[in-house]
Amino acid sequence: MPQLLLELFSEEIPARMQGNAARDLERMARDGLGKAGLISEGLKAFAGPRRLTLVVEGLPIAQPDVHDELKGPKVGAPDQAMDGFLRKTGLTREQLVERDGVYFAVIQKTGRPTSEIIAELVEQIVRSFPWPKSMTWGHGKLRWVRPLKRILCVFNREIVPLNIDGIVAGDLSEGHRFMAEKRVFRARDFTEYEDALMGHFVVLDVEERKARILEGARTLCFARGLELVEDEGLLEEVAGLAEWPTPILGDMAPAFLDLPPEVIRTSMRTHQKYFAVRRPGEAGLAPHFLVVANIQAADGGKEIALGNAKVLSSRLSDARFFWSEDVKDGFEPWLEKLNGVTFHAKLGTMAERVERIVALAREIAPLVGADPDKAAEAARLAKADLASQMVGEFPELQGIMGGYYAREFGLDAEIADAIRDHYRPQGPGDAVPTAPLSVAVALADKLDTLVGFFAIDEKPTGSKDPYALRRAALGVIRTVLENKARVPMTGVLADSLFGLVYNRGRIFSVSWQFEDTGIATTGIGSSADLMSSQAKGLFRESDGFESAAPSAIVGDLLNFFADRLKVALKDQGKRGDLVDAVFAPIDGKADDDLVRIVSRVEALTTFLATEDGTNLLQGYKRAANILKAEEKKGPLPTGEPSRVAAPAEEGALFDALAALGPKLDAALAAEDFTGAMTALAALRAPVDAFFVGVLVNSDVAAERDNRLRLLQQVQAAMGRVADFSLVTG
Amino acid sequence: MRLNQYWGDRGCLILQPHDEQVGAGTLHPATVLRALGPKPWNAAYVQPSRRPGDGRYGENPNRLQHYYQYQVILKPNPADMQDLYLGSLEAIGLDLRLHDIRFVEDDWENPTVGAWGLGWEVWCDGMEVSQYTYFQQVGGLDVFPVAGELTYGLERLAMYVFGVDNVYDLPYNDPDSPLGALTYGDVFLDNERQHSEANFHGYDVAVLKGQFEDMERQVPLMLDRSYQGDHLVLPAYDMVLKASHLFNLMNARGAIAVAERASYIGRIRDLCKLCAQAWVDQQGRNAA
Fold this sequence. Notes:
The complex is a heterodimer of chains A (729) and B (288).
Chain A (H helix, E strand, L loop, with lengths): L3 E7 L4 H21 L6 E6 L3 E7 L8 E9 L4 H11 L7 E3 L2 E8 L4 H14 L20 E8 L2 E2 L3 E2 L2 E2 L3 E3 L9 E3 L3 H10 L6 H18 L3 E2 L3 H8 L6 E6 L9 H12 L2 E4 L9 E6 L8 H28 L1 H7 L4 E3 L3 E2 H15 L7 H11 L6 H5 L6 H9 L4 H9 L14 H20 L13 H14 L6 H19 L4 E3 L9 H11 L4 E3 L8 H22 L4 H8 L10 H15 L2 H23 L14 H22 L3 H21 L7 H19 L10
Helix pairs in contact in A: 1-3, 5-6, 7-8, 10-11, 10-15, 10-17, 11-14, 11-15, 13-14, 14-15, 15-16, 15-17, 15-19, 16-19, 17-18, 17-19, 19-20, 20-21, 21-24, 22-24, 22-25, 23-24, 23-25
Chain B lengths: L1 H8 L3 E2 L14 H4 L8 E10 L15 E10 L5 H11 L9 E5 L3 E2 L4 E10 L2 E12 L2 E2 L5 E6 H9 L21 H19 L2 H20 L1 E2 L2 E2 L1 H20 L5 H30 L1
Parallel strand pairs in B: 1-2
Antiparallel strand pairs in B: 2-3, 3-9, 4-6, 5-6, 6-7, 7-8, 7-9, 10-11
């Protein structure tokens, strides 16, 4: 079956755009061919530094013919109807076919040649390709990511006639800029094309380029007793920068090893796109680097290695310059500078944000076993390195540099660690901080971000989360759970919000104003109390600020945390409905202790996996159904049930409930959720027996009411552990 | 000199540096203004460039606060501009089969003159030796036809050609000269040391600020004035360049808070836009 080969050859395409470009090309081609009724046997796109390539296998030579019959008016229908039908079909009366007294229009459409469709499709793809950034060049109006030089387009070994703004499609392409003997080659199908590329020093497939780089790099390292510090993102990037990737190992002046390894690695990576290397089993780096060149040089890459080594020296000299200037400055002048750094127009400067984090870290510290004064000091210094020259140059070293500088200035090691680790976890793969001081500052940092953006109504929507609030919330959740930190979320969120209002209100009195100045005293307990007692109207919104009541903001945040926790638990394989059942408010109050919520979900999961659990759940549902049905007839009876001797099952259930009460009290007070479930399990037999031996809907009103009261008690007792009505199955 | 020969042979006017302190060769009116309007234009020139914040007191082998850029502007950009560029590297003695030449994405942008384009940094063995840009906008106006711009760091290229690791070791003259063999350091090291200190600690911020505001006032006045029907765009543009340099000095002194930065840049850009628009209007009138 015929094959289509398309290559769009341009000047160098940015590495970061190549992956998406291949996917877009594949998608646009598949959609376009599909729309034209052309089904292929296989379709694949490739992207490299100078070309996008598409190969489509097994296309038909033409579109299928279309045979269609359209039913028209009856014979003898008024002229008006007849004329309308002829206009619609574009036929004459003589061309219509008459069958059973009805006219039919037979439409016979011969399928167009595939190459015509391809020509149109390629033009459409080129003109509407979704490059993130595109340009014009010369006198032209055509847009492409960089000047488009050639189009190779062959179908079934024939050139597809195509001319896009003067670029005429052909069967020619170009190989490597410097290595190929002859620049231009001809190809009429994919095999010829791939072979010719290889012969002209171009590896087409990015996966193969990556494999060659890794293999070559590992071999070079191994020969010198070294190990590559692998870096998937960097590999992807360098594979997009070379058509003939050639790893070369270069030497770095060992004197630079006194710089922090993170600095060396970041400098190598961001400025030079080098891989770092180390000795196997050693923590620090080795004084070498691995560069991926785009040429196999005549001298084996000696000049290239030397040249790159010089550049690296100069880069690292720069880094050393930043280091030495930074240690002259110290934290205090940096903190001063944070007054001039805007965090967000509505949320004030970085210095104000630091004030809030300090206050919050001090509140959180006792909850996680940290010293409040130390936590406040670590928080005060945590953002200082943002004003250092090194972090100015390498923003990704924020925190890390602060940690190094704190040690350099002789600060407490715990404080240095807290500064270093307070941004963690930076993603799902990153470890959470564990030292109590680090936990306190990390939580305060993230909570301030979350509360701030929620307060100004910048919540994430759909796929948009410009301030990475979901990541921050998940960071809080993981930090709390993995450290088993008992943090009442409502309290800390309220505290954080009060801190924000206080801090912003004091400095920009036009934004928020206190109606009651006595409220500035926070403290977790008092904030939480204030939330419930006088939440609404506590603050008067005065100048374009978000006017939601604090309780609404905290409520939104709690829901947001609940959603993130649900996602996290579901990722661990927990059932969504069980998570919902635990999250549901009990006595109007939702649990806000993440550690407790998770242990409840775990206990519930285990319980429902037992036979007692499943049966009790059935009993619960039956009780709920009966109560719901009865409720429709009239209000349910209130009050306590009484103990009756007969039927025996009714008395037994009463006894079981009476015995359960204190057990549940004790287990719940001790947060022993497995114990609470075990206590509930004792209900299973009496509940089962009750439904077998007792008819709830008795003709005697008093009997019926007593039984309904019992069922309500079953529901209430179980509801103390979780909302079983939300459990499915 | 070899670059002049090379680009001169390829139809470029060989110009001299502009006598204002500028941050880059691009800012020469032969690039910023000539890139605008419909007329073809090919030119090449050397431009001393000042980057006050890059001063390193002569201690970094590669970074200078005053250095030389070689600038080529080709409008419209020829279709084989990449080949022409590579030819120029060969012309100055670079063996393209021995070195690793790479075009690495770098979308050039100069917000102070409202200009941007797409292109690359050109790397030679990991060292950025040139900036290669297809101008898309200058002074906030579309560039059509598109102009291609090449900027070479002359010191870096010279280091390659002479195989020298430290810019200050570059030979500056014929070793047999009656002056004796002099290096780049003999000529420029004092300049780097003194200017670094001045840039980081010396300049009086209040004076710089006052001068900046003076320039800002004068640009529109200059554009209002005309001679034989032409507004005084070229002198006005010189004042924009002065303002831009003053801003760089204030920035190096650490006198501009992050929040103020954007507003300063915006002020310079507005001045530049006035000049660009006046230039384009003038070109249109003269062509008509």
